[in-house]
Amino acid sequence: MDESMDAPDPEREGRPKPSRLQLVLPAKPLASGFAVAVGVLLAIALAATVAGISTVLISIFLGMFLALGLDPSVRAFERRGMSRAAGVTIVAVIFLLVVAVILLLLVPATVRQISAAIEAAPETIAAVQQSGWYLSLEASLGIDLSAVIAEGIRSLTTLSSFLAISGGVLKAGFGVIGAVSSFVMVVVLTLYFVSSLQSIKAAAAQLVPLYRRARFTEVLEEITRSVGGVVAGGVTLSAINALVVFVIQLAVGSSVPAVMAIIAFFVTLVPMIGSLVFLIIGGVATLFVSPTAAVVFVVAYLVYIQVEAYIVTPRIMGKAAAVPGVLVIIGAMVGATLLGLLGALVAIPLTASMLIVIRKVWIPRQNSRTEPPGDETVR
């Protein structure tokens, strides 16, 4: 062995040993601090930009998920021998017809029912105040609930409240305009994504190295198929749920059955917990009809929840949403905290996608590692 390797280096021995402070601090503190400051400013600017275009991003995200929900229908037409272009055309026409029906029939009916409910509100409140359960509740609490309600109504008629309500109405008007424009954008994006879904997946596969492209395409195809099944199945279940609510509300004599059905549709899009949440909402709302009507609604809707859980859901969803129940609840809670109702809706498809990646990519990779890293073997 060369002895020069063991010989001490005079230049290294003569160099002073750096202190702990010199080891921690960067070699060029001014340049490093400036780079960190610029990075922080860029991060803040990026966050502000994302927040500014959040409505557009949500519209794109929602359009993509709706397109994935329509994709199983296109696949069904393809299995019957049609070309994908013909299937996309048929699905797009049906989708536009459904949108037209919602705009031309459900929206005017909902507006009429809301107006009728507002006009009948004084009579409804007076009838509730004369009911037996209201009088017993008032007696048990020991307060005059009628005086409290009257004081609240008087406070709403003051000048400051009027100005606040006027500002709120103005903001609501701008909100309605924004909602209409977002709705049109979502419809257009949905149709675009449905027609170009295959090319989008092919373009995404081109970004992956060639030796991984086949595996990536297989996993991506399974993810899109699973997410599409979850979205389509969830919308179908919510539509059935809304129809059941509409029938029950008509049977108990509700003045706003269409409104309750629309609320049920959007609330029950959240799986598992959505039906339980609407059970409370519907029960409380039906109290304004009568306590007996509320009991009838709660019992009938509970029966439907059981039928949906054990008969309807397995037939519609099949194996599309093979997600454990605890992950469904956790995903819905996390998604609702981050993005509200939209976050709760997309949480389950995202959870299903992550489970597919774990099952198809991560677990096989871990199973292929039969030897520990390094040259040493485990004794």
Residues in helix, %: over 70%
Task: State the helix count.
Answer: 15
**Percent of residues in beta strands?**
under 5%
H/E element order = HHHHHHHHHHHHHHH
Number of strands: 0
Anisotropy-based shape: globular
Could you tell me the mean pLDDT? 76
Radius of gyration over all CA atoms, rounded: 30 Å
Q: Largest sheet at a glance?
A: none
> How far do the termini sit from each other?
33 Å
How does the helix and strand content classify structurally?
A: mainly alpha
Low-confidence stretches: none
Structure characterization notes:
The chain has 379 residues and is mainly alpha-helical. 82% of the residues lie in helices and 0% in strands. It has 15 helices and no strands. The model has no long low-confidence stretch (mean pLDDT 76).
Structural descriptors:
379 residues, mainly alpha, globular
Helices and strands in order:
Blueprint: H1 10-14, H2 20-24, H3 29-52, H4 54-79, H5 84-119, H6 121-129, H7 132-141, H8 145-156, H9 159-195, H10 197-206, H11 210-251, H12 257-267, H13 273-286, H14 291-317, H15 325-368
Short description:
With 379 residues, this protein is mainly α.
